[in-house]
Amino acid sequence: MTSEALREPWTDLGRQRESAVFAMWLFIGTEILFFGGILAGYSVYRYLHTPAFLAAGAETNIYYGSANTAILLISSFVMSVGARAAREGLFRFARICFTMTAVLGMMFLTLKGFEYNDDLEKNLFPGPGFPLPEAGASLFWAFYWVATLIHAIHLTIGVGAVLRLQILSRHHPQWLIDSPSAEVTSLYWHFVDCIWVLLYALIYLPGRS
Amino acid sequence: MTKEERDALWRITRTPLLVVCALLLLFGANLGLSFVALGRFNLVLNLAIAALMIGLITVIFMELDRANGIQRFAAGIGVFWLFFLFFLGFVDYLSR
Fold first, then answer.
1. How confident is the model at residue A2 (pLDDT cuts 50, 70, 90)?
2. pTM for this prediction
3. A78 and A97 Cβ atoms separated by less than 8 Å
4. Which residues of chain B make contact with A104, given a CB cutoff of 8 A?
5. Residue A123 contacts B, CB cutoff 8 Å
6. CB distance B36–A37 less than 8 Å?
7. How far does Cα A110 stand from its chain's mean position?
8. Taking a C-beta distance cutoff of 8 angstroms, is the pair A152, A109 a contact?
């Protein structure tokens, strides 16, 4: 019997899964270079304006940043268990994990919204009225806005992808085991988590000591 | 839930649970160390711990440990070119 999850040009689900995971890793490779360009820019400017970057880093909200880091790490754990549960045929448990992952992702985005509001109230946006006098501090904050917004967009897409797993497996839980979607979505989610772990070290931790 | 399902659940949860505990400990260490004045070693330690966390996520959560050769190759290729991006980006500053 041919599964509905099987797509052309593959003739079996195993090969389809291998190809999908391979393709996702290639996509992640392009994403690494996408974020890598931003991080390379950050690194050069930090090298040129070290004191300003440390002063600017100390102005970020460590409470929101740390809470969001913990939330994303826990969400990665839940997503990982969900993908493994789907593979083992524990569909109900897998779907609970996907729901929890999406909720944790939305919690992250909500906290990020509060943090942005807090930052804007302090006028920490490069341009007129920017409060930090050090030359280069506005470069740090430009990086902050660009990098965290791009990350938030990625996470929003991730929440959508996880909800897609929920919707498509609602009436056909077997789809979770046939389709590589759970595994591929899981890879994407963890990658977005990895980016945040790096951003946390570069944005929230400088200038604390 | 049957005994088989409970056993399967424990089997798939055990390793990720250990890893997330390690990740939360490393995250706490990274946060705590950033408040200790270590000069330029703050950055080195913060990035080293972040790299360790990313390593755990990629190997265990992203299951690189059970990936086949071509998948591992694809996973490494982005990091390979990232090295050149940073190396060539900094070659001027570091060689002055």
1. low
2. 0.95
3. yes
4. none
5. no
6. no
7. 14
8. yes
